[in-house]
Every structure is written in structure tokens, then in C-alpha cells.
Amino acid sequence: MSIPIRILIVEDSEDDALLLVRELKRGGYTPEHRRVETEMEMAQEMGHQDWDLVITDHNMPNFSSSAALQVVKDSGRDIPIIVVSGSIGEDIAVQAMKSGAHDYIMKDNLTRLVPAIRRELSEAENRHAHRQAEETIRHMAFHDSLTDLVNRREFERRVGRALERARERELTHALLYIDLDQFKIINDTSGHIAGDELLRQLAHMLKKHVRESDTLARLGGDEFGALLESCPMNRAYNIAEALRQAIRNFRFVWDGKPFAVGASIGLVMMNGDTVSATDALSAADMACYAAKDLGRDRIHVFESGDEELVRRRGEMQWVARINDALAENRFTLYSQAIQPLKNGNRIHAEFLLRMLGPESQVVPPGAFIPAAERYNLMPAIDRWVIDNAFAYLSGDSSKKSGKKDVDKYFINLAGPSLNDNNLFDYIKRQMESFRLDPKKIGFEITETAAIGNMRLAVEFIDGIRKLGCSFALDDFGSGLCSFSYLKSIPVDSLKIDGCFVRSMKNNRMDAAIVQAINEVGHVAGLNTIAEFVEDKALIPELKHLGVDYAQGYGIARPMPLKS
């Protein structure tokens, strides 16, 4: 089979050029060729067409092989060049090879021409494949494999470079941090393949709403970033709004089901006073999550002194402290007694968590729990509590003062822990490992958390009770329709929300709510526990209402566990 080949022949003799073409045809090629004699003609042909090979004579009037080599170099193309000459000295041939020629052949020995062409075309193809591989690797290093947008590493580099230009030229840039709203629903209902396809389609669509000079990046998961260079505040906000609207109006269909997503966007302006790219990205990230906190599907502009962002910055600092405390085992457990208000009931207690600072100072939960909840650290903290509570309960009762008098210990679980599919099995394994009596253990979760994920809560609580442990619903009464949920949630105890208990002596409505919760709880066959009993004077009133237990500073203050 004849092989097509495009050859540019630099030759002043038409007959010699025809001899070259004839030799190529004899060697199995179908040459498409053009003959040129001058540097100008050659330069024009190099610009008009992609040639597979250049064959050049060495000596021509007003032109030479060295000049032809230079024309190829100037074109920037990697094209094999073979010098074919009637007479050429060895020193000239060596110089031609050093200048870029791939081979030289004497006109009286053209039998070498076709093998040389085959070899050079093969090597040129190998060089091209190698370059393509290098370009692919280089592209992959700086781009996201799913969306083909710039990746986080390259985005951060470009932000840093833009910040340098802002200082040098007194420019103003804008930085957008974009987080999709409701993206998790698509992954949960249709799988990650659907989620990936949505991200690909969104990335393609978003490119149409930024300028050519802007950088759009995927920063990870469902988060995107946009660097808007030389962009004033009003223009940046308009671009951010266009992106938000485009995402809001985008409709994604998977297996016949339509899905809609929104976006929360943080906007921060950068100029010569911006400290670093890291600070700018952190500010944009905080502004983005402030937009989420304020209702989602909106833009929040970073401003120094913004109370919402100051709060979030503080929480992010707590995240590092919490992770350090987990890594260094700097948490500790306290215990608070739950006093029986009826004869025959035995004392219960609740494990309470405290953090220890770097210098062993006690940090109350109100300082770090909000950040732990917001940044999904509660599941890890809950596991730490379970491990250490179980270790405490597995010890010799006679060596732990007061433990032998407690009938049941309660362990708090955070709402996000319900999403941990492995938590139930983990609790079961740990109970077996520590050889604990399940009747001595109770778990509790807030009413709000249980209602927020009813199906998981019911399955989890039912499983825990089947192990032989009890379960309490904490902060009961805080929901709008609390009583209606008692038919669905299989618990053993209700902990009456302390906001009603603490003021029941002076507020008839709060007293009536406490009474109603207690009565409904008893009808449902549940124990009732009044929380936040901070005044001992409340105890007779609670007894009068028939409440089973009381907990609070008026009963007993939390105390560190005694080893």
C-alpha cells in the first residue's frame, strides 16, 4: 500500500527534484511535493502548509542548506530535514548535522534516501508523541481531571501572582469562592456518577459567564473559585451575580429526574494591601460560608470587621485547636448527677465533655462545640467520649468513688453522628470489648437533631435499645410539634428543656409546659428528667408535678471523673 507524504524540496534543478520524487515512489510513497529555489519561497511554503519532510540541496545560487535549516528553525516546527547534495565535504556535512540536519545523502547514492526518510519520520512521530505526553502531564498537573478547569494548586499560584501585580501596578482584583447548595442531594439520591456529570456540565456553563482574562477553577468537591483580574467592585459583583443566577437557572436531568442547585458565593477584593494569597482565599471562604449561614443562594462581600466573618474566623481557629486536642488526647470527662425525685428511683448521671488547653486549663464546651458542629468534628469527638466513658465504666467499681451508687450513665451524641453509618457497629464492638452491662448505659440526643433526621434517628435508637441500653430525648419541648413525635421515636426518657424549667416558678406558662410534657411523657410510659434545675427551691414544685428526675447546678455541679 502506497504511503502519502508531503515533501518540500529545496532544489534549483527540476530534474534532480523529479529524481527524488521517483525514488520516493519506488520506495512505496505517494509524494505530494512542492519545489522552491529561494529563501522567500521556502518561508512562504512553510507558512502555508504542514510538511512531513524537507529535502534540501546544499549549494544553490543565492541559497544554501544552512539557510534552509534556518528557515525551518524560524518556523518553530519539528520537521525532519535531509540534505541531498552532489558533492559535500565531511566537515560541511558535520556542520550541517550540528545545525539541525537529520541526515545527508549523496545524489549518486539515492538508495539511502527512502530508509533515511522512514527512520526520520518514525523518530519525528516518537518526538511528537513524547511532547504530547509531556503536555498532557503538564496539563494534568495544573487542571482538574473531572471538569478540566484549573485545579486548586494552580489557582492559588495564579492568585499569588495576581497579588504581586496588584502591588507593583496598584491594581485591584476580585476573588470569588463558590459553593454549591443542595449538591449533596444529587449524590445521595442518584449517586456520584450523576454528581460528577453535574459538575462537568456546570463547569462548561460557568466558563461562558467569566471574561477570557479571568481564571475559573474547581477547588475541590462542589467548590469553585474565580479570579477576576483588574476588576472593580461593581463589575466583580455583577459577574458574581451572573454566576449565581446561571447556577440557579441551570436544570440538570438524570434518569428522567430534574434537579436544581443554587450557589453561595463569597466575594473579596484584593489590592496591594492584601497580605497574602492564603489570607485572600481564607477571607473568600469565610464570606462564602457566611452566605450559606444567612440563607444560601446569595453573595456575601467580605469586609473587615464584619461580625459574621469575625465569628467564623474564630470558629475556624477553634477547628485547629479541636484537632490538636483530639490528636494529643486533651479532652476530659466530667460527671453530673441526675437526682431521683421519687422513692425507689436510683441516681443517674450524665457524662459531660471538657477540653484541656495547652497548659491544662479547662475549656467549657460552649467555647468549642459550635465550631465542632459547624465543621463536622462532632462524630470524632463523640467517638472519643464513647471510648473514654466505656473505659471508665469497665473499671473496678470499688476503686471509683461514687460510681457504685450510680444506676445509669448517659452519653450525649451529636446530631451529625447519626449520619455515621458505622457508629452503631462501633458502639456494639466497644461494649463487647469492654464487657459492659448495657443496662448501665444510656444515650441521649436532642429532640431537634432527632426530628431533623427522623428515619436515621429511629433506626439508630431502635438498634441501641435492642442492645439493652436506654435512650433519652434531650431538650424536649423545643420543637414546634414535640408531642406528635413521641409516637414515632422509641425512647425511654424525656429530658424537659431547661428553658422552661429554670423559670417555671415565676412564669405560669413555662410551668404549664413542664406539667404538660411530664404528663404526656408518663402517658407514653417514659421517665421524665427536668434539666437546668439551678435553684433548689424548684425541687418541691417538680415533685408536686410528678417529674421523675432533676438535673442541674441546684442538684449537683459537674465534677471531674475520679480514677
Write the SSE topology.
Elements: E1 3-10, H1 14-26, E2 29-36, H2 39-48, E3 53-56, E4 59-60, E5 63-64, H3 65-75, E6 81-85, H4 90-99, E7 103-106, H5 113-142, H6 152-169, E8 173-181, H7 183-190, H8 192-206, E9 215-220, E10 223-228, H9 233-249, E11 251-254, E12 257-260, E13 262-270, H10 277-293, E14 299-301, H11 307-327, E15 331-340, E16 347-356, E17 362-363, H12 365-374, H13 378-393, E18 406-412, H14 423-434, E19 441-446, H15 447-452, H16 454-466, E20 470-476, H17 482-485, E21 493-496, H18 498-501, H19 508-523, E22 527-530, H20 538-545, E23 549-550, E24 559-560
Parallel strand pairs: 1-2, 1-3, 3-6, 6-7, 13-14, 16-18, 18-19, 19-20, 20-21, 21-22, 22-23
Antiparallel strand pairs: 4-5, 8-10, 8-13, 9-10, 11-12, 15-16, 15-23, 15-24, 16-17
Helix pairs in contact: 2-3, 7-8, 10-11, 11-12, 13-14
Structure description:
The protein has 563 residues and is α/β, with parallel strands linked by helices. The strands form five sheets. Strands 15-16-18-19-20-21-22-23 form an eight-stranded mixed barrel, surrounded by four helices. A five-stranded parallel β-sheet has the order 2-1-3-6-7, sandwiched between helices. The protein is elongated. The longest helix has 30 residues. The chain starts with a strand and ends with a strand. Helix 2 runs parallel beside helix 3, helix 10 packs across helix 11 and helix 11 crosses helix 12. It folds into three domains: 137 residues, Response regulator (Rossmann fold); 152 residues, Alpha-Beta Plaits; 242 residues, TIM Barrel (Alpha-Beta Barrel).
